[in-house]
């Protein structure tokens, strides 16, 4: 079996691939990726979610999930990702499988300084040589802006999402934009949107993060970075939805806002509600899940 066929076999076990994008760094893209994965798990008790961090120069998932210093090991069938059970209920819970270059670095303060081809090879390995198994969703946390990693992802995924045989079922591919409400951040979102359109990447819409601050005393929402900038941006894009001008058209749905929340930062730091399970335990969970499904 050639490398592409092997990669396609891996992908055929995944139902949906979602790329989480942002124009700028620090707007909460990784936090939203983590929250999305955990929300999908808590909404569906048998969900199987993969979370892949392809930010090769600034991986943050290991820190956010409290997994710094953990190793991934190699098996005959590829790298075994780190498994989490979001609710700690053994035997019935879904599984979150995480992979990041952070797990491969000896020291969390190290960073990789690679040229495009090396990044490209790493991303192909993350998709094709990680033992993802069956997944309902693979959420991919990308670096900010449009970098080598984005190009590699699309160049790797696109040709593989065309079935090589009549019986192969392949995942859907879509994207999600994260921004803060400030004008500067939204300017960068415009550029990201142009990338999405030029590459014909299906877009679910935009989440406005850090949209106001929940006052711990009165629970009122205070607009620190402003509020509603993302919604206005989406309204304007939706008005030009049918435009045929290059780089315009297609719209951008507003999906909702997440306020600045001190508790969220504390949870991301402490990850109190997440439990690490061993691959063996996770394999037993998967068998139990499949039995529940049947
Ligand atoms: P990015 O992935 O876009 O670089 P991160 O997800 O790493 O951004 O978030 C940057 C920082 O902001 C992190 O310390 C994170 O905990 C914090 N953060 C993100 N979203 C929120 C929020 N809604 N409320 C409070 N802090 C947040």
Automatic annotation (TrEMBL):
Compartments, record wording: Cytoplasm
Gene Ontology molecular function, alphabetical: 4 iron, 4 sulfur cluster binding; ATP binding; ATP-dependent FeS chaperone activity; hydrolase activity; metal ion binding
Record family assignment: Belongs to the Mrp/NBP35 ATP-binding proteins family. NUBP2/CFD1 subfamily.
Entry keywords, A to Z: 4Fe-4S, ATP-binding, Cytoplasm, Hydrolase, Iron, Iron-sulfur, Metal-binding, Nucleotide-binding
Gene Ontology CC terms, in alphabetical order: cytosol
Organism of provenance: Leucosporidium creatinivorum
Main location per the UniProt record: cytoplasm
Official protein name in the record: p-loop containing nucleoside triphosphate hydrolase protein
The protein's role, per its UniProt record: Component of the cytosolic iron-sulfur (Fe/S) protein assembly (CIA) machinery. Required for maturation of extramitochondrial Fe-S proteins. The NBP35-CFD1 heterotetramer forms a Fe-S scaffold complex, mediating the de novo assembly of an Fe-S cluster and its transfer to target apoproteins.
BP GO terms, sorted: iron-sulfur cluster assembly
Organism superkingdom: Eukaryota
Chain positions recorded as ATP binding sites: 23-30
Binding positions ([4Fe-4S] cluster): 215, 218
């Amino acid at each position: 079996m050639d490398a592409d066929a092997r990669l396609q076999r891996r992908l055929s076990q995944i139902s949906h691939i979602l790329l989480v994008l942002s124009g700028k760094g620090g707007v909460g893209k990784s936090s939203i990726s983590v929250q999305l994965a955990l929300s999908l798990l808590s909404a569906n008790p048998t969900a199987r979610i993969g979370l892949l961090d392809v930010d090769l120069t600034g991986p943050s998932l290991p820190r956010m999930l409290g997994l710094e210093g953990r190793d991934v090991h190699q098996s005959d069938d590829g790298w075994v990702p780190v498994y989490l059970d979001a609710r700690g209920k053994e035997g019935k819970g879904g599984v979150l499988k995480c992979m990041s270059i952070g797990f491969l670095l000896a020291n969390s303060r190290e960073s990789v300084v690679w040229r495009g081809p090396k990044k490209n090879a790493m991303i192909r390995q993350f998709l094709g040589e990680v033992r993802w198994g069956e997944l309902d969703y693979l959420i991919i946390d990308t670096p900010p802006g449009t970098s080598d990693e984005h190009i590699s992802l699309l160049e790797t995924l696109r040709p593989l999402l065309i079935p090589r045989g009549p019986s192969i079922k392949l995942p859907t591919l879509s994207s999600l934009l994260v921004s803060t409400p400030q004008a500067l951040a939204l300017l960068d979102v415009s550029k990201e949107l142009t990338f999405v359109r030029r590459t014909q990447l299906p877009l679910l819409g935009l989440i406005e993060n850090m949209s106001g601050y929940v006052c711990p005393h009165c629970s009122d929402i205070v607009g620190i970075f402003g509020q509603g900038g993302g919604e206005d941006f989406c309204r304007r894009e939706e008005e030009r939805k049918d435009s045929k001008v290059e780089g315009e058209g297609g719209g951008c749905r507003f999906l909702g806002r997440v306020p600045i929340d001190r508790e969220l930062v504390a949870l991301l730091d402490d990850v109190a509600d997440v439990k690490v399970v061993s691959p063996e335990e996770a394999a037993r969970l998967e068998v139990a899940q499949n039995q529940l499904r049947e």
